Structures are given as structure tokens and as C-alpha cells.
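#lab-general

N.A. 3:47 PM
ok so I finally got the sequence cleaned up, no stray characters, all 508 residues accounted for. can someone with queue access submit it? mine expired

B.Y. 3:52 PM
send it over

N.A. 3:53 PM
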Amino acid sequence: MSSLFSQSTSNSTIQLAATAVVSAAVAAGAVLSYQHLQQGEKIYQLKQSIPSPHDHEPAPKVTKRGPLPEPDKDDEHGHHLAERALKGDIDDELILEQLARNRVFLGPEGLEKLRNSFVVVVGCGGVGSHAAAALARSGVSKLRLIDFDQVSLSSLNRHAVAILADVGSPKVECLSRRLLDIAPWVQFDLRMEKMDGKSAASLLGGWKGTGHMPDFVIDAIDNIDSKVDLLKYCWDHQLPVISSMGAGTKSDPTRIMVGDIGTSTDDGLSRATRRRLKLLGITSGIPVVFSTEQMGEGKAALLPLPEEQFQKGSVGELGVISDFRVRILPVLGTMPAVFGYTVANHVILKITGYPIDYIPGKGRDKMYDGILAFIQSSEEKIIRQAEGGSQENCLGLKVPVTTGDIAFLAEELYKGRSVVTGIPTKLVLIRWEKPTASTLIRIKSADVEQKSSDLKLSDLVCMTKEEATRHLKEIILGDKTHKDLYDEAVIEKVEARRQEAKAYERFR
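B.Y. 4:20 PM
back already:
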């Protein structure tokens, strides 16, 4: 073995090759070292150029609403660095170096799209703060943060950047101030307001001074009314939006997924949101982040606030709005972060055009059309019988039911099953009660006449087509009663569902 080595090293060709390899390695090392030193020098010069906080007046506060912590040395440095970055004083090469991993992944064009984008984050708590932080770190240059709340002690278990000194300060101010220390080039538009139908146009409008409309809106709200108002506005105005559903009581990060709102069947917040949106005619087309995790024995659940605790008068410290009844929502601190990063991940991929696949929707449109046709046919038969068999009274008859109503009743209220047998196939909707008077409504104007039935959501129940055909023939058009066809358990279940439908009719 030693003789073989001696022969190899004596060979002039091998010696030359080895010398070339070593020389190349030394040259490459020298180049890389020089580049590293150059970059280090730039960073050093940048840090040295940041003025001392003692040489300047305190940085102006973005908002005066709520007590703010006094700026410390790092805050002052971050503020001055941000000012310089927004003026273009910071070498773009350093910014690109900070975003280098994203640039390699998304490509230069993808990163440029991200850097030119404008994203609105509505709700800056656990989910929203992590989403905003991820977007700022990834290169998004314009962020509008919307939240009327302040940082509380209980926020610290799940907020992305808040520290003890931030307690009592507005969430939007806390978030922007901390993120400027990470990505000083980001421009923030802070709105300490509550999202609702009246404020949506202002809060979701174009970027100040440019009219640049949001490239994406993130819904990280945990209030149903505000959530529905936001999603409805985005739907009506074709603003790209993604909605985060409930992270509370969830513990399994492997069950979190992105899909169309029509597929998010196992999440409480998603279910409530879906119901309201369907009544507004929105059955699909909104991406959501949700969990398929099921509740189970020993798992956390939503707890009511004990009345004796409310009577102590200290409940106001748990919330932001005075006289607002607080419910205790168990939240594992890690889960909002997973939801937030999943939301941000989706937004980044969408803005940059990176390939992304959704969970397939349920493809229920054909079923909804069939149910609507059955309702139309049965209402015509009911009116024809009431009007003495005249076909003329049914010509042009309209039924006040939309596909959204059908989706809500069939899938949300009756869980996609017959109320009679629980069968999940060939489902339709049919009147439950036999009308005591004509259901025909006529509206005349000159030579124009509109005919419709007086159908309401609470009138309809879900059955299989065969069950509904029998129900129509024997009860609605016949002389039998509900007790002749159904047992007491079915009748009680129907009445409970009809009462629930009545409660939702006001949202139509």
C-alpha cells in the first residue's frame, strides 16, 4: 500500500493535477473571504451609522390611543434604521441578503412581486401577529394592520412579538414597532379600529397616496359578525382573501389544512361562518385555514365564565370592551402560530405565483340544482291544489329560495342527512306543515304580474326524495298527520331544527 502511494506521488501528471486543485481551492477561499469581509464591513458601517438615541428626540409614536411603553435604546435604533430604510438609504444588497433564502426559493421575479405587494392583516392577536411577522420577514413591503384591541397579559402566551412591557399598548402599534427591528424597510399603515360592514370600505381601501388595492387580505378575526362582514365585502369586491378559523381548543398541528370554506366541516368557528355566508349566497370560493381535529374526552373545551366571577366586577380586565361578557377560550400557545404561518405561507405562494393545490370542493352544485327543482315542483302542486287545480296560477311561479339557502339547510342544519332515517343520499327539501291557506303571493303592476310562494327557511325539512314524495302526497296534499307517518323522536327533531332555522332567517 505504501509503495502504491509512493508511485502515485512520483507521477508528474498526478502532482500537477493536485497542485491545480489546491490552487483553485485557495483562490476560491480567498474570493469568498474577501466577499465576506466586504459584506461584514457594509453591515458594520450600517450599524455604526445609526445615531445614538441620546442624540435625538424620542421617536414619534404612531398612535396615541392607549398607554405606550417608553422607547428603549433598541426601539430608538430600530426607529432611526427604519427611517433610513424607507428613504432608500440602506443598500438594497443588504436587504436582498436578508431575503436570500426566499429569493432562491421563489426566484428573483417571485421575490420582486412579494416586495411590491400590499397585504392587509385584520386581527393582530395570536394568529394575525404570526402571519404579519412571517410576511415582514419574507419581504412584503406594505402591511396594513387592523385591530381595536390592546395587548393583555393573557396575550403573551401566543403573540408573535409582544413582551411584558407591551401590555396595555395597542396591538397594531406593538406589532409594527417590533417588526421594524426585524425588517426596517416595511411600511406600516396602522388602524386601531373594529372591522364591520360600515368600516370595511375604508379599512380595505387602497394604500395611502397610491390607490394600490390590497394584493391579499388576511382574516384573523375571532368575532363572527366582523368575520362575516369582512368576507362578504371581499367577496363582493373581488379582493383576494384567506380566513383563519378557530385555533382555540386545538392541539394537533398535523390536522391543520388549507381548503375551500365548503370543505371545513369539523371546525366550530368555520361552521358558524359557513352558515352565515351561505345565507348571504356565498357557498364556496373562499380559502380557509382550519383544523379537522375532533373534540374528545379529556380535551380542552370552551368554558363559560362563572356568574360569580362576573359579579366580582373584575371581568373587564379580561377584555377590551366594557360590559362585554367574556368567555374563557382555552388556547395552546403553539397553535395560533401554526395557523398564522399557514395563512402567511398561502399568501406568499399566491402573490408570487408559486404552484399551489387546494383540497377539492364538494362539487354540490348539481345537487343544489336538483333540490331547487324539487322545491319548485312541490310548491306548484300545492298551489294548484289550493287554487282548484288551475295550471295557469303556477305559470311563472318563483320560489324565494337560493342555492345558499339550500346549502345551509341541507348541509349545515340537517348535516347532509334525512331527518327521518338519516340516509345521506338523494336528498331534497320539502314543506313540513300542510298550509292552512293559499301559499300564492301575487304582485301586479299594469300588465306585469309576479307570482311567488310564501315559503320560508323554517318551512322546509330535509328528506330523501322517496320520503319527501310520500310526505307531499299523504300529508301536504292528503289527509294524514305527522303522527300517522313519524314517531315522536322524528317530530321533536324536526321542530328543533325548524326553530334553529327561524333564528337564522334574520341573516338572509
